[in-house]
Known about the structure:
This protein is mainly beta. It has a single domain, classed as Jelly Rolls, CATH 2.60.120.480. Helix content is 2%, strand content 49%. It has one helix spanning 12-15; strands at 3-4, 7-9, 19-22, 29-32, 37-40, 54-62, 69-76, 82-86, 92-97, 99-100, 103-104, 108-112, 117-120, 125-126, 130-131, 136-144, 151-161. The strands form five sheets. Strands 2, 9, 12, 14 and 15 form a five-stranded mixed β-sheet that branches. The longest helix is centred in the first third of the chain and has 4 residues, at 12-15. The chain starts with a strand and ends in a 7-residue tail after the last strand. Nickel (II) ion is lined by residues 75, 77, 82, 126, 128. This is Ureidoglycolate lyase. Homodimer.
Amino acid sequence: MPKILPVRPLRQETFAPFGHVIEADPARMRLINGGNTERFHALAEAEAAGEGARVILNIFRGQPRAFPYQLTMMERHPFGSQSFSPLNGRPYLVVVSEDDGGRPAEPQVFLAAGNQGVNYRRNVWHHPLMTLDAPSDFLVVDRDGPGNNLEEFFFDDPFLISAPLISE
Length: 168
Ligand SMILES: NC(=O)N[C@@H](O)C(=O)O
Ligand code: NI
């Protein structure tokens, strides 16, 4: 029986080993434009390593995942960070792993709210986009350039996400 992974709410403190949560954090706010606009400053940094690399902005339109979901693989991008910011205001799942000697450790699953984005630091193990309920668009900021920027790992034994609900 595959091991069922608990789902936790996405919080910066628990996500810190993997990157940053992109959300309107009052501690990062400064007023600009004559007080008309609140700027939540420098919530994360985009990384694009290697000669000829550049930071690009994309839209990913993800189809909803079906549950229970068998999680069989993780991936990482050795030359750059990757951020996902929801454009439709719907929740989604974020799945990350610590590195364990070059392979992902047991995945950790977070339920992100529709007003939370994430930025995976360069070379952080994560599962590809996990959209819920309906096709959803995400602004994705990541790295383009020479070299293979995608490393995948397939588990011998899959894990299971039974439902995208908070279980902790
Ligand atoms: N491969 C690709 O562009 N998408 C993945 O990196 C992902 O994290 O969804
Ligand atoms: Ni990715």
